[in-house]
Write a structure and sequence with these properties.
Chain A: Belongs to the CPA3 antiporters (TC 2.A.63) subunit D family. Chain A: It is found in: Cell membrane; Membrane. Chain A: This is Proton-conducting membrane transporter. The complex is a heterodimer of chains A (532) and B (115). Chain A has 532 residues and is an all-alpha fold. Chain A folds into three domains: 121 residues; 142 residues, no CATH class; 231 residues, no CATH class. Chain A contains 22 helices and two strands. Chain A has a two-stranded antiparallel sheet. In chain A, helix 13 packs antiparallel against helix 16 and helix 15 packs parallel to helix 18. Chain B has a single domain, classed as Orthogonal Bundle (Helix Hairpins). With 115 residues, chain B is mainly α. Helices cover 70% and strands 0% of the residues of chain B. In chain B, helix 1 packs antiparallel against helix 2 and helix 2 packs antiparallel against helix 3. Classes of the chains: A mainly alpha (532), B mainly alpha (115). Chains A and B meet through helix 5, helix 6 and helix 22 of A and helix 1, helix 2, helix 3 and helix 4 of B.
Chain lengths: 532, 115
């Protein structure tokens, strides 16, 4: 077991020192550091898996007074995921022109902050970490200083600061009501309460902010701007979409756990998740820009994960958590390959890119593996998690809801993948070794996560989730039928419809986002007052 | 009657004034000021919500009365520092936007950006 504090501080300290070295040297130092971090995270994961939860207080104070870091199995898996993805991103980056010391520094600081967010056990710490991460990310979003970037970065910064103000006021009210801000202190204090009256208002404040971080239905409109912005290098898009959005979902899981004994909102968030998924894929289908298709696709997948988390069924919960891991891999692979395709073709328009398969075979194979993961094709990782999510829904409306979402996913993926085919006059491009290897490995992981799905869930989370081969086979047949319907719908009448071009202008301004945030808050509050 | 006007109610009122500013004002500077108002209201809330009349600061000789809770104060010092950082960062970005687009309105900015 290695001190949890080190895994947070190591990337920040090393990156700060490497600022003074020339970039040729420092980029290798960062790579070595990333490898060390993967080893440390793996040792910690193995320790937690064998010995159970680790609670560590900073400074030698007793644990009810001091700031604590808490590593349980979910947190260590998320940390492991973070360090593996960051290693991949740094390797992908090694030969890029924009790479300089500042970029590496900010990137490593972001890694430390995300790891700290997963290990943190205290709501105020969470607030501080998210605020700092927000500033770092908004600088990274506008790193290439393109024309639109400043607007995107500023919108991201201000919207998230407003949301975190809601969060902090909620924490203040919670402290007044319960006298603790420690997540597990809250859990025990809430279970001792007689009625939920005193914690409804703080809960509504906190959950509004967390829903914005997780990009739920009315609150997602900052996400495509931030994740799909042309100015951000594709590694940033990949980290934001694959990983950082998951910190919102992770917080959601934690906070729902802490309040579970008094407040039950699973039905509310189940419906919210469904609406998010549907709106996400409709908007994804409407986009022309390949990065924006992927960004709206993230919104849709977040909705799916939310549905899984709120069905109060053990299989669906683990399915959703496994889908978090899977989504991190296939979405990073998709964003990285999209970045390489954009670099090669010098355009982001999905209608203008053709014949990628001939020009960039390795990239295409990685991309297609990831696509099969997203759509939940049999043998790929998405199919296992979607199978588990669907397992708990049998007999309710959610079962058909999931089929509908998968149909939508297939439709926008059909639109996205048409760029692999077709004629192309260009010659086979020479792209560099590191980038090809990274995307290829990420693609292969999508495949391994599928064929060894049952085993990898058992390995990661120490739970047995049996996959019934007969039922899985039925799902495979349903998938193939959905695939044909999806292709028919897209090529049949969506391809020339005017409806799509109207939709892709849809975007909320800053004032409208603040309004939806307030409306979401009021609606949640009213819902809680009525139901509790 | 006057009991109603205490730190808590004032801070919640201020918080929603800040939100009103965010929703209704199109000017970026006013949006940043509104965020500042929200942050000030949160600081007021934390400090005043757990206040006990007649309590003494939590340092030095603690025998002469009830001791004020040090935790909200410690948290709020951090929040003030973060607030300054955020305001500085957003104002810097605003200066860049103004140099580039020559406007301080969210709507005009969005229209110019889409071109």
């Amino acid at each position: 077991m290695i001190d949890l504090l080190w895994i947070i501080l190591l990337p920040i300290i090393i990156a700060a020192f490497s600022m003074i070295l020339p970039i040729k040297l420092s980029k290798y130092i960062i790579v070595i550091m990333q490898i060390c971090l993967v080893i440390i995270a793996f040792i910690n994961f193995a320790y937690v898996r064998v010995n159970g939860i680790v609670l560590q207080s900073i400074g030698d104070w007793p644990s009810n007074v001091s700031i604590t870091l808490r590593a349980d199995l979910l947190a260590t898996v998320m940390v492991l995921l973070t360090v593996i993805l960051f290693l991949a991103m740094v390797l992908y980056n090694t030969k890029q022109k924009y790479l300089n010391n500042l970029f590496l520094f900010l990137f490593s600081v972001l890694e430390g902050l995300i790891i700290a967010l997963f290990l943190s056990n205290d709501l105020f710490n969470v607030f501080v970490l998210i605020e700092v991460a927000t500033v770092v990310i908004s600088v990274l979003i506008m790193f290439k200083k393109d024309s639109q970037s400043i607007y995107d970065g500023m919108l991201y910064l201000l919207i998230n600061v407003v949301a975190m103000s809601f969060f902090l006021l909620g924490v203040g009210m919670l402290y007044k009501a319960l006298g603790v801000i420690d997540l597990f202190g809250i859990e025990s204090a809430v279970s001792r309460l007689d009625s939920a009256d005193s914690i409804i208002l703080p809960y509504a404040f906190i959950i509004t902010a967390v829903s914005l971080k997780a990009a739920l239905m009315p609150l997602f409109s900052w996400l495509p701007r931030a994740h799909g912005t042309p100015s951000a290098p594709s590694v940033i898009s990949a980290v934001l979409s694959g990983l950082y959005v998951k910190s919102g979902i992770y917080l959601f899981i934690r906070i729902q756990d802490a309040f579970a004994s008094q407040i039950d909102t699973s039905e509310y968030f189940l419906i919210m998740g469904f609406i998010t998924a549907v709106v996400g894929f409709i908007l994804a289908t409407a986009q022309k820009d390949i990065k924006l298709i992927l960004a709206y696709g993230t919104v849709s997948q977040i909705g799916l994960i939310m549905m899984g988390l709120n069905m109060n069924h053990i299989e669906t919960t683990w399915g959703a958590i496994y889908h978090i891991v899977n989504h991190a891999f296939f979405k990073s692979a998709l964003f990285l390959t999209a970045g390489m395709i954009i670099d090669e073709y010098k355009t982001r328009d999905v209608y203008k890119i053709r014949g990628v398969f001939k020009r960039m075979p390795i990239v295409s194979i990685a991309s297609i593996f990831a696509i099969l993961g997203v759509t939940g094709a049999p043998l790929f990782n998405g199919s296992i998690s979607k199978y588990l999510i669907a397992y708990g829904t049998s007999g309710s409306w959610a079962e058909y809801g999931l089929l509908f979402i998968n149909l939508g996913t297939i439709i926008y993926i059909v639109k996205y993948s048409q760029m692999f085919f077709g004629l192309d006059t260009g010659i086979r491009c020479r792209s560099d070794f590191y980038r090809n290897t990274v995307v290829f490995v990420l693609g292969i992981i999508c495949f391994i996560g599928g064929i060894f799905g049952e085993k990898s869930i058992e390995f990661l989370f120490d739970v047995k989730m049996p996959v019934d081969p007969l039922l899985y086979g039925t799902k495979a047949i349903i998938f193939i039928i959905t695939l044909f319907i999806g292709i028919l719908i897209y090529h049949g009448f969506l391809i020339n419809s005017k409806f799509l071009s109207k939709l892709n202008k849809f975007e909320l301004s800053f004032n409208e986002v603040c309004l939806t945030l307030t409306l979401f808050f009021s609606f949640t509050l009213v819902y809680l007052k009525i139901t509790q | 009657m006057m009991d109603f006007i205490n730190g808590e109610t004032v801070s919640i009122l201020l918080f929603f004034i800040g939100i009103y500013g965010l929703i209704a004002k199109r000017n970026i500077i006013k949006s940043i000021i509104s965020i500042g108002i929200m942050q000030a209201s949160i600081i007021l809330y934390f400090i005043s919500a757990n206040y006990i009349a007649g309590s003494i600061p939590p340092m030095g000789d603690l025998s002469s009365g009830p001791v004020a809770d040090p935790l909200p104060q410690a948290l709020m010092i951090t929040e003030i520092v973060i607030g300054v950082g955020i305001t500085a960062a957003s104002l810097t970005m605003f200066i860049h936007i103004f140099h580039k687009y020559g406007t301080s309105s969210w709507l005009k900015l969005r229209r110019k950006r889409l071109k």
